[in-house]
UniProtKB/TrEMBL annotation:
<dbReference type="InterPro" id="IPR002523">
    <property type="entry name" value="MgTranspt_CorA/ZnTranspt_ZntB"/>
</dbReference>
<feature type="transmembrane region" description="Helical">
    <location>
        <begin position="278"/>
        <end position="298"/>
    </location>
</feature>
<dbReference type="InterPro" id="IPR045863">
    <property type="entry name" value="CorA_TM1_TM2"/>
</dbReference>
<dbReference type="GO" id="GO:0015087">
    <property type="term" value="F:cobalt ion transmembrane transporter activity"/>
</dbReference>
<keyword id="KW-0472">Membrane</keyword>
<keyword id="KW-0813">Transport</keyword>
<protein>
    <recommendedName>
        <fullName>Cobalt transporter</fullName>
    </recommendedName>
</protein>
<dbReference type="GO" id="GO:0000287">
    <property type="term" value="F:magnesium ion binding"/>
</dbReference>
<keyword id="KW-0406">Ion transport</keyword>
<comment type="similarity">
    <text>Belongs to the CorA metal ion transporter (MIT) (TC 1.A.35) family.</text>
</comment>
<keyword id="KW-1003">Cell membrane</keyword>
<feature type="transmembrane region" description="Helical">
    <location>
        <begin position="246"/>
        <end position="266"/>
    </location>
</feature>
<comment type="function">
    <text>Mediates influx of magnesium ions. Alternates between open and closed states. Activated by low cytoplasmic Mg(2+) levels. Inactive when cytoplasmic Mg(2+) levels are high.</text>
</comment>
<dbReference type="InterPro" id="IPR045861">
    <property type="entry name" value="CorA_cytoplasmic_dom"/>
</dbReference>
<keyword id="KW-0812">Transmembrane</keyword>
<dbReference type="GO" id="GO:0050897">
    <property type="term" value="F:cobalt ion binding"/>
</dbReference>
<dbReference type="GO" id="GO:0015095">
    <property type="term" value="F:magnesium ion transmembrane transporter activity"/>
</dbReference>
C-alpha cells in the first residue's frame, strides 16, 4: 500500500492507493468509509453517495489492443482519500499528482476550508491526468486507420478484417468510456461539493467539456472506420467485376469458336470441306479472324 499524509495546522488528510487484498485487510479504513466493498464486477463508471461518503467506480479502457480495461474505485470520506485497484498505473499516477499538489500548495495561501479544497483539487488533478494524452492517442488511432485505408486502395491489405476488428472494439470501449465520464461529471456537478467556488465549478465544467470533445472525436473515428470498410468492400466488388469481365470476354470469344468446332464436327458425307485440301487451314484462319474481331470490339468498348 502507498500512502501520503498532508496537514495544515490541526487538519490532516490521509491519501492511500491499495489493491483489493490490502483493502480487504484494512478493516479500519473500510469501517470509516462505511460503504459497499470494492467490486471489480461493476464494469462501468458510476458514482455512489451515502451521507458524507462518496464512492466513484471507474472503468478505464487500455490503450493497448491486446488488453481491454482495468477497474478501480475512488473513496472520499471526510479527510480520507483512497483509491483501490490492481493496476500499477494508479500508484505511478498518484505519485506524480502528489508532487504537483505539493508544489501548488507552497504557492497558495491556506484558508480555514483547506481540507475540502485540497480534496477537491486532488480529485481535479486525478480526472485531468486520466485524460491527459487521450487526444494524442485518438489521433494515432486515426492515423493507423488512414494507413490501413491507403493499403486497401493499393490492394496490399489481405488481412483487413483481422487488423480492423481490434481497433473497432477498442474505439467502441473508449466511446462508451467518455460518455460515462460525461454523465459522471454531470452528477458530480449536481452534487454541489465541487462547485462551491467559481474556480471549482470551472474545472468540473472544463472536465465535462473535454470528455464531450473526446467522445465527439471518437465518434468521428467510428464514422471514418465505417467509410474505410465501405472502401474495402468497394475494392472487393471492383476486383470481382474485373474477374467477371475477364470471364465474359473469354466466353464471348470461345462461343463462335465452339460453334465452328461443333459445325464441322458433324462429319456428314456431303460436307465439301471434309475432303478439301485447304479445309483445315481455312477453319484455322476463320477462327483467328473471329478472335481478332472480338478483341477489336472489346477494345472499342473499353472492356480492357
Amino acid at each position: 500500500m502507498n500512502s501520503w499524509i498532508r496537514s495544515q495546522k490541526e487538519e490532516k488528510i490521509y491519501i492511500a492507493v491499495m489493491n483489493g487484498q490490502e483493502w480487504a485487510d484494512t478493516k479500519e479504513c473500510r469501517n470509516n468509509l462505511c460503504v459497499r466493498p470494492f467490486s471489480p464486477s461493476l464494469r462501468y463508471c458510476r458514482m455512489e453517495r451515502k451521507r458524507d461518503r462518496l464512492r466513484i467506480q471507474m472503468e478505464t479502457p487500455s490503450r493497448k489492443s491486446e488488453t481491454k480495461e482495468f477497474y478501480y474505485s475512488i473513496w472520499i470520506a471526510g479527510n480520507l482519500f483512497v483509491i483501490v485497484g490492481e493496476d500499477d498505473f494508479l500508484v505511478k499516477n498518484m505519485t506524480e499528482i502528489m508532487k504537483k499538489m505539493d508544489e501548488k500548495t507552497k504557492l497558495e495561501e491556506q484558508d480555514e476550508k483547506w481540507a475540502a479544497g485540497y480534496l477537491s483539487s486532488l480529485l481535479e488533478q486525478w480526472f485531468k491526468s486520466i485524460l491527459k494524452d487521450d487526444l494524442e492517442f485518438l489521433q494515432s488511432v486515426e492515423l493507423e486507420i488512414a494507413k490501413l485505408e491507403e493499403a486497401v486502395l493499393k490492394g496490399k491489405c489481405p488481412e483487413f478484417n483481422a487488423r480492423m476488428l481490434p481497433v473497432k472494439k477498442q474505439i467502441a470501449r473508449f466511446y462508451r468510456y467518455y460518455n460515462q465520464l460525461v454523465e459522471l461529471s454531470q452528477e458530480l456537478t449536481e452534487l454541489g461539493e465541487f462547485s462551491e467556488k467559481e474556480s471549482k465549478e470551472n474545472w468540473m465544467n472544463g472536465f465535462k467539456e473535454r470528455c464531450s470533445l473526446l467522445a465527439g472525436q471518437t465518434q468521428i473515428i467510428r464514422e471514418y472506420m465505417i467509410q474505410v470498410q465501405e472502401v474495402y468492400q468497394s475494392e472487393i466488388e471492383i476486383r470481382q467485376n474485373d474477374v467477371m469481365k475477364a470471364l465474359t470476354m473469354v466466353t464471348t470469344i470461345c462461343f463462335p469458336l465452339t460453334l465452328v468446332a461443333g459445325w464441322y464436327g458433324m462429319n456428314f458425307k456431303y460436307m465439301p470441306e471434309i475432303y478439301s485440301r485447304y479445309g483445315y487451314p481455312a477453319v484455322i484462319f476463320i477462327c483467328v479472324i473471329i478472335i481478332i474481331i472480338s478483341l477489336i470490339i472489346f477494345k472499342k468498348k473499353n472492356f480492357w
